[in-house]
Amino acid sequence: MVLTILTSLVNRVGTIIILAFIMSKINLFRKLVTKKNISLSDKFILSILFGIFGIIGTYSGIFVKGALANSRVIGVFVGGLLGGPFVGILSGIIAGFHRWIIDIGGFTATACAISTIIEGTMAGMLSKRFYKTENKWIFSLGMGIIAEIIQMIIILIVAKPFIEAVNLVKIIGMPMIVANSIGIAIFIVITDSIFKDQDRAAAYQAQIALKIANKTLKYFRKGFNSETARETAQIIYDMTDLKAVAFTDRERILAHIGVGEDHHKAGDSIKTIITKEVIKSGRYMVANSKEEIDCNVRTCELKSAIIVPLKENNRVIGTLKLYKTEDNSINQVDLELALGLGLLFSTQIELSKIEYQSELLAKAELKALQAQINPHFLFNAINTIVSFIRTKPDKARELLLHLGSYFRKNLQQNGEEVELTKEIEYIKSYLEIEKARFGDKLNVKFDIPDKITCFLPPLILQPIVENAVKHGIMEKLEGGTIVIKAIDSERETILIVKDDGVGMDEDYIKHIFSRKEGNDSIGLINVNNRLKNKYGEEYGLKIESKLGVGTTVTMRIPKHSKEAN
């Protein structure tokens, strides 16, 4: 009897799995399942969908001693795992209420209704843990077994008479536990394939984003105008399956390539209300229909769009717009691509100001230093960020923010002096990206007094820290630690950058500030000369180093600048 029920249940579970496989190929289902932040309406749709799966499981059940051996739990439990508590509870209520209403007063009607709701709730509560688990199908299998055991316990507690409940559980308990838990695991394997497909698409988009960034860098570094916008839009259009790409400034269209370029013309005022709203709010927006785009040309074929603000010093200076010609066709991969490009372009636009800013700088040394830092660091940073886009998108976004902050502060470093705290913030943005590149090989410690008052030349400390990273720690196989320390005294502030890297021999240290051919200590030479020129010969860098032990670089900043005025 038990074996017969098990065989029959497995066949019925197979039907549910086939339906799940078919659903996994439908775009609407794939979009709902893979959305990171699903709306309330999305949750209702998922709840109804998985509730229906539960109802199908009920109708495909096997009558046993006045009860049903069924696979109702599969849809409800999977819904809870994928959609969270709201979906788990509501789909449980839908399937559970249906089970009760088709057999009011039945032997197990109430018990099954209660257990269905409890199992859906349980799955919803496990949702966060489920997403953090590497082997999701094993986790689902184990939790499915526990859920079905709980259902058997509820039948024993609620169903009357008790002796009949016991006899029923003896017959259906093992078949339902085995078949349904396996069914849940297989359903999860099917849905997990959707995520893997998205990951593959995201990986491809990441490669595209890197290629776009590399190709467009030379344009936006010339400034943000109609010419550079058109060249960049053409590159994006050629390298993606988007139907149109556009750039605007705050008031007019700079470039529009693709569908709609007959009426979205460069030089025209911005036509769409949603673009104006993005410029006003500084937040990206997604349009899922022609009505939301609200183009005033009736024949316009553009029906979906993502509009991303482009910023300079936190001020919106324009937008990047990616279009498609089908309703509701902007997916998560498109969104990530647009946001990533928006941040990269914002950074590139800010970089375009560097050359202009450098012309205004009085010190030739600072010009040379900025020119040395930015290009190499930018390309390394972009490569690092791209490597995180697929595996750790949140980390990639965090690094993009650090990159923007780094170059923003770089652009602002055009005064005679800056506060030490500002310089430290700048260094921290730089180090966050370097730590992402090198992982556990790079450790950094800060020992800066909270209320320290110190003004120093801009970009005076960063080259020393960079030198410690590149030539100290990264030359050491196992990596190491950098300590950045400030000592506040009455007449001066002592700044120390110490690393336990590979170190240098005495002969090299003797010639470290010479400009002879082959010397790669340009940053240190620059800093040393700037300190001496500003404060006097006695304020040059002091370097102590020993091979295999590490290097300590010390500078002194006298207190006769801004704080003394």
Largest sheet: 5 strands, antiparallel
The number of helical elements comes to: 19
| Extended strand count | 14
Mean pLDDT: 83
Strand content: 5-15%
Radius of gyration: 32 Å
Helicity range = 55-70%
Number of domains: 3
Distance between the termini: 95 Å
Describe this structure in words.
- By secondary structure, the protein is an alpha+beta fold.
- It has helices at 2-23, 27-34, 40-59, 72-83, 85-101, 109-125, 127-132, 136-158, 162-220, 226-239, 273-281, 290-293, 332-360, 364-391, 393-412, 420-438, 462-473, 506-510, 522-535; strands spanning 62-64, 67-69, 244-248, 253-258, 285-287, 304-312, 315-324, 418-419, 442-447, 455-456, 480-488, 492-499, 542-546, 550-558.
- It folds into 3 domains: 1-198, Arp2/3 complex 21 kDa subunit ARPC3 (Orthogonal Bundle), CATH 1.10.1760.20; 222-369, Beta-Lactamase (2-Layer Sandwich); 375-558, Heat Shock Protein 90 (2-Layer Sandwich).
- The protein is built from 19 helices and 14 strands.
- Strands 4-3-7-6-5 form a 5-stranded antiparallel sheet, with helices on both faces.
- The protein is globular.
- The model is unreliable at 356-365 (pLDDT under 50).
Features:
Bact_2-comp_sensor_kinase, Arp2/3 complex 21 kDa subunit ARPC3, Heat Shock Protein 90, five-stranded mixed β-sheet, transmembrane helix, 3 domains, Beta-Lactamase, 565 residues, alpha+beta
Give a summary of the structure in a few sentences.
It catalyses: ATP + protein L-histidine = ADP + protein N-phospho-L-histidine. This protein has 565 residues and is α+β, with helices and mostly antiparallel strands.
